[in-house]
Amino acid sequence: MAGMAAFSFFFTTFIFSFVSSERYEPTWESLDSRPLPSWYDENKIGIFIHWGVFSVPSFRSEWFWWDWQGNQPTQDVVEYMKENYPPDFTYADFAPMFTAEFYNPDQWADIFNASGARYIVLTSKHHEGFTNWPSKYSFNWNAMDVGPKKDLVGMLADSIRRRTNIHFGLYHSLFEWFNPLLLQDEANKYETDDFVTSKTMPELYEIVNRYKPDIVWSDGDWAGNYTYWKSREFLAWLYNDSPVKDTVVTNDRWGWGCLCQHGGFLTCTDRYNPGKLQKRKWENAMTLDIDSWGYRRTATLEDYLTMDNITQILAQTISCGGNVLINVGPTKDGLIKPIFEERLRQLGDWLKVNGDAIYGTNPWTYQNDTYTPNVWYTSKKVETETNVYAIVLEWPETDTLYLAAPTPSSATVVTLLGYSYPISWRKPSTHPNGIEIVFPIIPFSDMPCQWAWVFMMEGLVN
Length: 462
Hints:
Elements: H1 10-14, E1 15-16, H2 28-31, E2 36-37, H3 38-43, E3 45-49, H4 64-69, H5 75-84, H6 105-114, E4 119-125, H7 152-163, E5 167-173, H8 180-187, H9 194-211, E6 215-219, H10 226-229, H11 231-240, E7 249-250, E8 282-287, H12 307-319, E9 322-328, H13 338-354, E10 375-382, E11 385-392, E12 400-403, E13 413-416, E14 425-426, E15 435-438, E16 453-458
Parallel strand pairs: 1-2, 3-4, 3-9, 4-5, 5-6, 6-7, 8-9
Antiparallel strand pairs: 10-11, 11-16, 12-15, 13-16, 14-15
Helix pairs in contact: 6-7, 6-13
EC number: 3.2.1.51
GO cellular component, one term: lysosome
GO molecular function, one term: alpha-L-fucosidase activity
C-alpha cells in the first residue's frame, strides 16, 4: 500500500490543459513526450464494451474461438461444441446468429450516461477479426455483410454524441487468431508484414477517419514487435495529422516492448491496480463479471462485482492516479443485461453524491491512510486551498474515525458529502498526530449513500 507519495506533483508535470503544437516524430522518445489531453485525467471513469461474434456462444469468455480451436483447446469448450453443434460446424457459422435485433444505441447511451462515466470504449474488432463496422478490409466478416446487417459502431457513436457529453472511444485488436496473412508473417518470423499493410493499419486509419474516436485503445500486441506493427508511424499520424490529433488519447499496447512503457496512458496488465502512485498516467481496465469480458450465459450472481467491490476498486485506482474502465458484455441480441445496468446505475447514484471526490481530482500526499485501513484519499485545488477527500469504505463500529494522515488546523472544516449538517472533529487523545472525525447518528432515510462515504476536509495543515 502507498504511504508518502514520491510523485505527488506528477499530474502538474505530465498532464497539461493543452496539447503542444509540436510535430511528433515516429520515435518513442518523441511520441512519449506528447502530453495527454487533460480531459482524460479529469474524467476518471469509462465504460468498456466487449461485443462480437463471441457473444453468440457466450460460453466461457470472449476467447471462445481460441479456446475451441487454438493451440491448446480447452476441454469444456470442446465438449460444449460436441454436445450442441454438428461436427462440420465452424466458428463462422456463429456470425449469422449475431443478430443484434434488440440493439438500441439510444438506450445504451442513456445507461452509460446514468452511470456517471465520462467516456466509453467500444470493441470495434476483437481477436476473432470480425469488425463491428462495415470495413472495406474485412469482406464478409463484418457487421454489415453478415449478422446484424448494421453499422454497430456508427450507430453508437451517433447516439453517444447526440444524447450525452461522453467521449467516444474504440478498442481495436492489432492481430487476429487465425488470419492466414498473419500466420504467414509469423511463419516468416515477421520479416514480412502483409497482414499489417493490408489489414491492421488500413482498419485503424479507417476507424479514425470515419468515427473520429477520442480514444484508440489498442490490444493484441503480443504477436509482434512495434516495428512489425508500424505502430510508431500510425501514432505519429494520429498525433500530427488525424482529425482527432488534439483530443485523442491512446494506451500502451502497440507491440513487444511497449506494454507499461510506451504510448499514451499505461494499462500494463488487465485489471491493473498497483495500489500505489505511478510515475505516469495509467488505467485500470476491469470487468463486472470477474471471469470474462464478453457476455457469459453461465455466470452466477457470485461472479459479478458488488457495489462494495466497485467502490473499493474505484477509490484505490483514483487515489493512485489511475482511471477506471469498467467492462460490460452485451448479448448477441444487443441487450445490456439487468445485472450490468443495475451496477452502472448504482455507480451513477453514488457519483451524484460523491463525484466531487472523483472527477477532476489529483492524488494527495498520501494515497491511503497510514493507520486506519480501507480509507483512500484524493485532493482538489480550490482557489488557493487544497481540499482533501477521505473515501471511507467501511462505516466504523464506534462513533469516531481516526485518520493518521491529515493534520488539522484551527480552521479545519469537515463535511460528509451528501449530508447537510456539520461534522464534528477533534484532535486525537491517544495518538500524537492526525484527526478524529465524529460520525453522526444518521437516520437511514437521511443516509447520503449506501456504499463508501466521503469526508471532505478543508483547511488542513498538509
